[in-house]
């Protein structure tokens, strides 16, 4: 009998072991569920949110500017969008420019590395030493480089890709040094504007309706807007933009070469059949006739038939774009020209034209006299003679080229948004941060979840096999004991 009781005790011990491992299984399941639904990383466990950095160079036609951004690993954005801000030191943004433009080295590509040295040294001085080697560097060239012959373009870019690492410790990838086309410049600007406005959503705020942008420079004008609804039309100017696994947009982005303010002026002057220019003040080379000026300029821009229901500057555009209903922001020339006439900010066509007319019908001597006495305070000296044409040109492109209604619109011209000057470089950093995966926190999170999943599967498998063996032993012994009792 004692032997029988001993066997029963051992069987109970087996059962207890099975219950113990079952408890482990349940406990590990709870841990797995908790970790899988939280942003657990070693950094968050310690309560830290160490910042990383990114550096981008805007290599434009007149010079190159370098921007340094700080990238928060533990973003508060519920959509997993990185939190990126311009780095500020001593109350000023960490930005520096050198001249001339990168394209000026077309005949001397071997000198481009030296050209970038002061910019990169400046950026390195503002980033913690231990973080420099893990900080990515992007160099994106724009309009000036696009105009160079192919051989010169390639020589400059290849020289930078091969030799830039000799003067900096920044993390460099060949694909991050290149010439970008105007459409991508527009997309980056669109991302910048909507990011600064908070339209992509945050932890505490839902995503908002996005805004569009128009940026007029000297040589070209760019437009970028979101296409509402599903677009199935094939169009080379429509781009699928993914800022995160769940933040996706269809963007119409296009660049119109020759429609910048300076190129527009050149084309206009060549088209004049008379030496008397209605867009120039009297006593210079013009007649100061604003009505004739704006009519002539608008006629030169009006859309012709492009074989589509909707055209912007004679370019076929997809359905789902209604610029009259969309909130639009105008930059660069739109800001400078409207500001010259005291009409910047929320656009008022009637007020804008009234102020233009008052200036453009004055004689040149009267304009200069008023300027000397403190009048026309917003107008820079260098723009005084061309101001009337540029006003007519911005109006023509806005209303005739892009067909935005004069009165029924939601257009505004700005230099800054929420206190930050709009730069496409910010949008580029946001986009390529997401696509190059430089955020260690996200990588760490993915790795942690993978390891947790593997560990969970192993624990489950081991616990199941052990429990199966223990219960098998238990019931085998129970049958033997039952048989023994029957015999006795």
Describe this structure in words.
- With 488 residues, the protein is α+β, with helices and mostly antiparallel strands.
- Among the domains are: 51-180 and 423-436, 2-Layer Sandwich (Nucleotidyltransferase, domain 5), CATH 3.30.420.40; 250-420, 2-Layer Sandwich (Nucleotidyltransferase, domain 5).
- The chain has 14 helices and 20 strands.
- The protein has helices at residues 2-36, 42-45, 112-124, 143-146, 150-163, 182-196, 261-271, 290-301, 333-340, 349-360, 364-372, 387-401, 424-436, 440-487, and strands at 51-59, 64-72, 83-86, 88-89, 92-93, 95-98, 137-141, 177-179, 212-216, 220-226, 238-244, 247-257, 277-282, 311-312, 315-316, 327-332, 345-346, 410-413, 416-417, 420-421.
- The strands form five sheets. Strands 11-12-10-9-16-18-17 form a seven-stranded mixed β-sheet.
- Helix 6 (182-196) packs across helix 13 and helix 7 packs across helix 12 (387-401).
- The longest helix is centred in the C-terminal third of the chain and has 48 residues, at 440-487.
- The termini are close together.
- Mean pLDDT is 83; it is low at 38-49 and 437-446.
- Keywords: ATP-binding, Hydrolase, Membrane, Nucleotide-binding, Transmembrane, Transmembrane helix.
- The active site is at residue 185.
- ATP binds at residues 218-222.
């Amino acid at each position: 009998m004692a032997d029988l009781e001993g066997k029963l005790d051992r069987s109970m011990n087996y059962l207890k072991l099975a219950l113990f491992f079952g408890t482990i299984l349940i406990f590990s399941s709870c841990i797995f569920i908790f970790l899988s639904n939280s942003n657990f990383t070693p950094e968050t466990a310690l309560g830290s949110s160490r910042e990383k950095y990114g550096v981008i160079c805007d290599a434009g036609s007149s010079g190159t500017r370098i921007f340094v951004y700080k990238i928060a690993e533990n973003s508060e954005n519920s959509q997993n969008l990185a939190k990126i801000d311009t780095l500020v030191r001593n109350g000023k943004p960490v930005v520096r420019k050198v001249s001339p433009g990168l394209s000026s080295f077309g005949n001397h590509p071997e000198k481009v590395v030296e050209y970038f040295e002061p910019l990169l040294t400046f950026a390195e001085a503002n980033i913690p030493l231990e973080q420099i080697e893990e900080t990515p560097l992007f160099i994106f060239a724009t309009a000036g480089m696009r105009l160079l012959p192919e051989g010169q373009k390639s020589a400059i870019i290849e020289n930078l890709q091969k030799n830039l690492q000799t003067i900096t410790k920044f993390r460099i990838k060949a694909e991050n040094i290149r010439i970008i086309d105007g459409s991508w410049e527009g997309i980056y600007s669109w991302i910048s504007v909507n990011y600064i406005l908070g339209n992509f959503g945050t932890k505490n705020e839902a995503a908002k309706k996005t805004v569009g942008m128009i940026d007029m420079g000297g040589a070209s004008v760019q437009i970028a807007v979101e296409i509402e609804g599903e677009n199935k039309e094939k169009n080379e100017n429509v781009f699928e933009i993914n800022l995160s696994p769940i933040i996706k947009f269809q963007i119409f982005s296009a660049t119109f070469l020759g429609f910048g303010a300076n190129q527009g002026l050149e084309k206009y002057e060549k088209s004049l059949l008379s030496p008397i220019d209605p867009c120039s003040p009297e006593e210079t080379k013009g007649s100061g006739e604003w009505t004739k000026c704006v009519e002539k300029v608008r006629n030169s821009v009006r859309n012709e038939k492009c074989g589509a229901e909707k055209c912007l500057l004679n370019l076929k555009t997809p359905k789902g774009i209604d610029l009259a209903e969309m909130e639009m922001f105008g930059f660069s020339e739109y800001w400078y020209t409207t500001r010259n006439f005291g009409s910047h900010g929320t656009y008022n066509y009637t007020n804008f034209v009234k102020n233009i007319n008052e200036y453009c019908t004055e004689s040149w001597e009267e304009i200069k006299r008023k300027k000397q006495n403190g009048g026309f305070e917003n107008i820079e000296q260098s723009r005084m003679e061309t101001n009337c044409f540029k006003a007519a040109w911005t109006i023509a492109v806005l209303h005739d080229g892009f067909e935005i209604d004069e009165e029924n619109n939601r257009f505004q011209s700005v230099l800054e948004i929420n206190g930050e000057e709009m730069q496409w470089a910010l949008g580029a950093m946001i986009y390529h941060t997401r696509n190059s995966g430089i955020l260690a926190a996200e990588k760490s999170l993915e790795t942690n979840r993978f390891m947790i999943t593997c560990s969970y599967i192993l624990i489950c498998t081991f616990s199941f096999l052990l429990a199966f063996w223990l219960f098998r032993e238990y019931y085998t012994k129970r049958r033997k004991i039952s048989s023994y009792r029957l015999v006795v």
